[in-house]
Recover the amino acids of this structure.
């Protein structure tokens, strides 16, 4: 699945640099040992909305995969939500780095107080700065 254009999104996204932990919910199977394992990634959220987030990462998670996303907001609030990898993006630059690689995660559900805290953060992040008086 390709990245949705801004006109197809239900919610406006805001640029953000927030710490995020992404954990897989269903186990994967190690190809060498055959043992099940889970992934837990400490990454950075590059943008966020009420409906989802873009997480910069070099890890490849298959679209459709369910994850637990733990997003740390400024001021200490912690948002936990179940999400679904909606799309992946891998960009290679001439120097071999992958600055824009990541995964788009659609939020599927979580505690109402967590989404209230997220909406509060989004509302304050999009407010114009106060005028100097």
């Amino acid at each position: 699945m390709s990245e949705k254009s801004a006109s197809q999104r239900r919610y406006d996204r805001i640029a953000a640099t927030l710490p995020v932990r992404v954990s897989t919910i269903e186990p994967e199977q190690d190809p060498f040992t055959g043992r099940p394992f889970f992934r837990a990634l400490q990454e950075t959220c590059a943008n966020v909305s009420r409906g989802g987030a873009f997480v910069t990462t070099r890890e490849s998670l298959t679209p459709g995969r369910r994850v637990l996303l733990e997003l740390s907001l400024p001021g200490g609030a912690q948002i936990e939500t179940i999400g679904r990898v909606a799309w992946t993006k891998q960009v290679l630059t001439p120097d071999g780095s992958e600055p824009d690689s990541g995964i788009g995660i659609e939020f599927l559900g979580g505690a109402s107080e967590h989404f209230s805290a997220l909406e509060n953060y989004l509302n304050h992040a999009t407010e114009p700065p106060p005028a100097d008086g």
Observations:
- The two ends are 49 Å apart (CA to CA).
- Residues 35 and 54 are 30 Å apart (CA to CA).
- Residues 1-6 have pLDDT under 50 and may be disordered.
- The beta strands are 14-24, 28-29, 36-37, 40-48, 52-56, 66-72, 78-89, 102-110.
